[in-house]
Target: Aquaporin-like protein
Amino acid sequence: MAKDVEVGGEFQAKDYHDPPPAPLVDAQELTQWSFYRAIIAEFIATLLFLYITVLTVIGYKSQVDPDKGGQDCDGVGILGIAWAFGGMIFILVYCTAGISGGHINPAVTFGLFLARKVSLVRAILYMAAQCLGAICGCGLVKAFQKSYYNKYGGGANSLADGYSTGTGLAAEIIGTFVLVYTVFSATDPKRNARDSHVPVLAPLPIGFAVFMVHLATIPITGTGINPARSFGAAVMFNQDKPWDDHWIFWVGPFIGAAIAAIYHQYILRAGAAKALGSFRSSSAISMAKDVEVGGEFQAKDYHDPPPAPLVDAQELAQWSFYRAIIAEFIATLLFLYITVLTVIGYKSQVDPDKGGQDCDGVGILGIAWAFGGMIFILVYCTAGISGGHINPAVTFGLFLARKVSLVRAILYMAAQCLGAICGCGLVKAFQKSYYKKYGGGANSLADGYSTGTGLAAEIIGTFVLVYTVFSATDPKRNARDSHVPVLAPLPIGFAVFMVHLATIPITGTGINPARSFGAAVMFNQDKPWDDHWIFWVGPFIGAAIAAIYHQYILRAGAAKALGSFRSSSAM
Model:
């Protein structure tokens, strides 16, 4: 890595520079749209974070509830819950880093404020947005499944029985130290100077830090390390126990963040003389950004490709167009074959009629990995050919953003649906009895959940996916780092994985109309068809909201919103 060199008792920068410290109050940022856009991004990111993670926690507790016939090995387990929290932080930091810095946590914001990376006004408004987003995220879960929310604790943090207050406080302090120290290390200007792909990779160790801390501290406090997360859940659950312990989830993380800031800035960054002015003032991760000049945004170091025409007659004469359609067909076929085979194999392994046990098979966690992992692989393989959509909702969102033409969008969707039917057909052809007995991987609304709950799960789940697609393929990222197109499939695959962890107990997780359609066609029973409209309407609404949010709000205003992506592929 880039290093400091000590000359004459003083440290000289070798091959990097430290941006100036943020002022305590920056009046100029209050006049810029980018400032308010960043606050909105923090609100939405924290909302999504709490929605997915709390939904995962409640789903797991529902699945292992003996009153509902659950067993200890049912559900995603503690490992799956830890993955939900860590994976969502990875995705959301990746998506929002270039907009707000991707804090999504008042403790992170507080640590960066102490390091003079953000102004006092920005820090306060970030924390307010994060807390409000957390309340709204938990509120969405409660609104759509109130009985489950109240019965299973609402994801609220509290000190577990058998642990002292000191133990809980120490867990929060040290856990937050691990997280904030990782944030400082991952966003250090020395790393940016050493290797251009560091800003792209930074969300990965940050997400892993959250994952590791959850593995260690879930048994003690349920893992806070994020005051907004604890506050939002406590507000919506509103029972005595979480409120009695609540101070731990503010004091602990703030102490841990302060220690991390002091350690990194004063000790690791070559002395107190330069310690508090060593980071950028605007974001946690350095990325290409819009620059606001005279009330308008100017492209700094990237350009937006022209919008795709509604009908592009020229592409109809090109072999690359038809090759892309074939690629979408084959990719969706493979996606359905592997994932449906995984689902049926799991149900077969736990079938008591075959001597199976609840702990046999890959479990819900393995099923979620099958869907997320296959999307990662197939997007990686087909991105340069078709854009790697493999999902009509993704295609629809990119069409709304004028990234693909209408003709391409229609033919992609047709190829995806046909591929899904063929993929499920292959599974059925080779194991027809198992296919019929174990549901054929078809989506339907689970017992105990309302239609509104299922529709909301599909809308928000698809929003998470399509928003990640937009963020991962943003021209700003391509301008900033040539590694981005190669790395983009990773957060997209993680998004699919996270959404499956949260929504498998509700709908079996659609978020892909072709996947739901292909399974319904081949299984061909009443229940999947009765609920089938949910798996088209929900994903299309979610994709449309993601397109509008990314294009009109995050991409610097409506004036340039619908013409900001390539016209030929997602990547």
About this structure: The longest strand covers residues 4-7. Residues 314-553 form a domain with the Glycerol uptake facilitator protein fold (CATH 1.20.1080.10).
